[in-house]
Amino acid sequence: MRALSFHKRLKFRKDYPIPQRAEGEALIRVLQAGICNTDIEIVRGYMPFQGVLGHEFVGVVEEAGDKTWIGKRVVGEINCPCGGCEYCRQGLGNHCPNRKVLGILGKDGAFADYVTLPMANLHELPASISNLQAVFVEPIASAFRILEQVDIGPKDRVAVLGDGKLGLLVAQVMASTGCELTAVGRHPEKLEILAKRKIKTRLVHEGPYQKFDLCIDCTGSPKGLELALDLVRPMGKIVLKSTFARGERLNLSQLVVNEVVLLGSRCGPFKRAIEALQDGAVEVDNMVTKVYNLGEATKAFSLASRKGVLKVVLYMT
Ligand SMILES: [Zn+2]
Ligand SMILES: [Zn+2]
Hints:
Number of domains: 2
Bound molecules: zinc ion
Largest sheet: 7 strands, mixed
Number of helices: 10
Radius of gyration: 19 Å
Helix content: 10-25%
Oligomer: single chain
Distance between the termini: 12 Å
CATH class of the largest domain: Alpha Beta
Number of strands: 19
CATH superfamily of the largest domain: Medium-chain alcohol dehydrogenases, catalytic domain
């Protein structure tokens, strides 16, 4: 099959073996897959992953133990826990130390014609969600993870920092809580996507700012945490969504002095993400910069790595 593999460097291959489905897994023919910052950071060395990249996808089930799934159009959760360890037994499979993660850790991903995933990870898509929209389910779910971790109500002043792919999704999810939201970014044209949805936006250099109860860093840069530390009120919270390969020296004394809570946040609920796309709480149609055939995957990847570019999507047929 065709695949974009990463073994020290990115390479498009036409002779990659079709993955064999293990017991309990489905074989899925990939229709479309989105390039995420995590993919770009893996190539920069954020994780020592080797194999097929890609974890944001939509596809059709071709083989499965449970035949009722065959032919269904699905998206899939990316964590594949062992099922037997202490974390798994507590229902914390996303933190299973033995887990594999699609296209990130120990399991080939979706920039390929085929992918395998446990049946338990699959979610059938309603017909009203297009393939292009479905590619956003995984990152939207990750935005909803914040609502599982922090109680947010109409009285809360919330700042979403960063107007990249994830920032635009997180801001829309936060807006759905009715909180007092400000989206802070560097690109007027990207903030405009949120302004059209009646979300208050500001350019980062437009300060001075009021202090916020909650700052969510989606900048993808170590600078984001610095800005969050500046903007959060004493005893407020910071949620970190950025992962990056580069380390940087940070002065965390503000965290101590202001007794700020710092919280990491990763994968989230697919069901809520699918519902949000269905009822229009999150809109993604103006977030796709360009669509490429899988055959042009390396070209797509270099465009996605460029600053200012939003979602780049691969289609397989
Ligand atoms: Zn991602
Ligand atoms: Zn486990």
